[in-house]
Task: inverse folding
């Protein structure tokens, strides 16, 4: 079992920045990819970014050049640095960890005001 706890969400003005953290605990040695997804009201959950155990990132087109995913394996933590935020980025952001199963965190709200 893997437990994921997100933090760092909040309210920010357009153009601002936030940094999300996802701390993993439990059976962490089996974690391969970690990722961030988001779900806006009335929309499906979508991939924002993922990072492999070796540190290779993948980004959604909508966040390329603005968001950076990183991972500190020593701290069992993944991060999402979000810059140049726009109201379209408003959503609940969820952390995901993949072993032979998929685990989700509880989500953290990000609200960007115009």
Result:
């Amino acid at each position: 079992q893997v437990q994921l706890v997100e933090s760092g969400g909040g309210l920010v003005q357009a153009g601002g920045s936030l940094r999300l953290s996802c701390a993993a605990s439990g059976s962490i040695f089996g974690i391969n990819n970690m990722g961030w997804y988001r779900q806006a009201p009335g929309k499906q959950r979508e991939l924002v970014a993922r990072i492999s155990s070796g540190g290779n990132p993948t980004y959604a087109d909508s966040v390329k050049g603005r968001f950076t995913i990183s991972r500190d394996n020593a701290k069992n933590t993944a991060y999402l640095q979000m810059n140049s935020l726009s109201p379209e980025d408003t959503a609940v952001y969820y952390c995901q960890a993949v072993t032979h199963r998929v685990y989700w965190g509880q989500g953290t709200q990000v609200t960007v005001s115009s």
About this structure: The first strand starts at residue 2 and ends at 7. The chain has a mean pLDDT of 95. The two ends are 40 Å apart (CA to CA). The chain has no helices and eleven strands.
